[in-house]
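Task: sequence design from structure.
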């Protein structure tokens, strides 16, 4: 008998505690909603700091009030503080108990991702919003826009990769052409040096021949000798080769520019 009485007493205490807890939660939620209302009034009169304080107090009073973090998120979003806005929208989504509230939270999270140009995450957020409210045309429009921006962003990334690969190829080609030019220059220098040595030998031979010849013959042959500024056949050939190499280099650069094309910027206000 005593045990039964004790059990009844214990159950009564538990029920009373649960009732007190429920009353406390209800009171806290009521206070949170009142603070949210005050925050709304301050925000409507452009008192952002006061509104932020009211919303934060409302959130600390009760985690059942989804309106407080949602409205604070809107305040941050309008001030372009997107990181803080996203955190509050996420908090509102977790506190939401209805599909309508969850839909609005996910929709605005998608808006934050769009501002950050994180289009893949925006697509997922809008999809979650539509799962909670499939009839919202604004969310559906934003989802289509996010998909289009994601597609263009991926195309731009692919184009940038192609441009980088093309630049690397151009650098390798330029380096190869530079090596060829150095090699041609070395050949030209060696050829010029050989020409000079040959000319020196010819000059020494001519001097010896002139010593044997009469003065009249020497004067006649001097008149027939080439002018000092006249180029040899080898020098002319080397110059022609160098000009052809330079022309080939210029043509390759022109062709490369034709392939690259022009980047297109994609911007749209929404």
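Answer:
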């Amino acid at each position: 008998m005593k045990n039964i009485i004790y059990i009844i007493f214990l159950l009564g205490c538990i029920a009373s505690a649960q009732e007190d807890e429920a009353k406390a939660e209800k009171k806290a939620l009521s206070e949170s909603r009142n603070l949210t209302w005050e925050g709304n009034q301050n925000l409507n009169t452009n008192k952002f700091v006061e509104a932020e304080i009211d919303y934060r107090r409302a959130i600390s009073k009760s985690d059942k009030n989804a309106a407080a973090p949602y409205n604070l998120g809107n305040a941050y979003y309008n001030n372009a503080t997107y990181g803080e806005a996203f955190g509050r929208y996420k908090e509102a989504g977790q506190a939401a108990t209805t599909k309508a509230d969850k839909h609005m939270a996910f929709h605005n999270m998608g808006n934050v991702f769009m501002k950050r140009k994180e289009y893949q995450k925006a697509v997922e957020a809008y999809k979650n919003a539509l799962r909670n409210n499939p009839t919202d045309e604004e969310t559906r429009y934003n989802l289509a826009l996010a998909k289009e921006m994601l597609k263009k962003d991926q195309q731009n990334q692919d184009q940038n990769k192609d441009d980088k690969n093309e630049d690397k190829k151009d650098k390798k080609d330029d380096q190869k052409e530079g090596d060829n030019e150095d090699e041609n220059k070395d050949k030209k220098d060696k050829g010029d040096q050989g020409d000079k040595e040959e000319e020196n030998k010819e000059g020494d031979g001519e001097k010896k021949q002139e010593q044997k010849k009469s003065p009249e013959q020497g004067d006649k042959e001097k008149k027939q000798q080439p002018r000092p500024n006249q180029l040899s056949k080898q020098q002319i050939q080397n110059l022609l080769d160098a000009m052809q190499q330079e022309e080939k280099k210029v043509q390759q650069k022109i062709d490369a520019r034709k392939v690259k094309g022009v980047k297109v910027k994609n911007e749209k206000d929404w």
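The domain at 2-154 is CATH 1.25.40.10 (Serine Threonine Protein Phosphatase 5, Tetratricopeptide repeat).
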